Amino acid sequence: MWISLKIFLWVLSIWCILLIFIVWRFFYELSYYEYLSSVATENGVRYSLYKERGFGDTAWVVLESSNIENYKKVTHMQKPLIGYTFPMIMRNRNDGCNYDNPKLLIHEDTYLIFERWGMYHSIYDIQKGKIILNYWDIKQEYKKQTGYDAYECSVEYLNWKKKNLHDKIKIIYRAEAH
């Protein structure tokens, strides 16, 4: 009896470990990156935009992809991206609105701008190699600055985004032009 209980527990343990591995692999495969587009500076530095898909909110990742072979076929990156060898420039999480038509723009070979739904969301100084403005979680930043929860696509939230992201980014790159 005691030996059969030990065998049963051993078999049960093996099955649990196998089940955990299968579930982990399932979630890992459903979490992937989809290549969207690329832009390049005049001296050939390429930046690529990827859409992060999975069970969480959609997010966008911008990589400096000049040295990445088959950059259009990158589907998996180590998560979290901290310490990863791909040179990640910006990361931006979907906040429930303004998620259509994401794209990258290069302004006068100086600034890399991430735009979605016609609204600027992030800006990177190419020459200095420095992020100027980029919030991973815009709703969290809104709550931190205003003390209120962000209701998806509310007029107040959209006005805050326009003032604190879009308009600030326009001021930054226009100042350079003058």
Describe this structure in words.
Strand 5 and strand 6 form a beta hairpin. The protein has helices at 2-30, 138-146, 155-177; strands at residues 32-40, 46-53, 59-64, 88-93, 103-107, 111-116, 119-125, 130-133. With 178 residues, the chain is an alpha+beta fold. The strands form two sheets. A four-stranded antiparallel beta sheet has the order 1-2-3-4. Strands 5-6-7-8 form a four-stranded antiparallel beta sheet. The radius of gyration is 21 Å and the shape is elongated.
H/E element sequence:
HEEEEEEEEHH
Largest sheet: 4 strands, antiparallel
Strand order of the largest sheet: 1-2-3-4
Cα separation of the termini: 86 Å
What is the typical, i.e. mean, pLDDT?
82
Low-confidence parts: 79-85
- Rg, Å, rounded: 21 Å
Anisotropy-based shape = elongated
Q: Beta-sheet strand percentage?
A: 25-35%
Count of beta strands: 8
* Helical amount: 25-40%
Structure annotation, total helices: 3
List the main descriptive attributes of the protein structure presented here:
34% helix, 4-stranded antiparallel β-sheet, 178 residues, 8 strands, elongated, 3 helices, alpha+beta
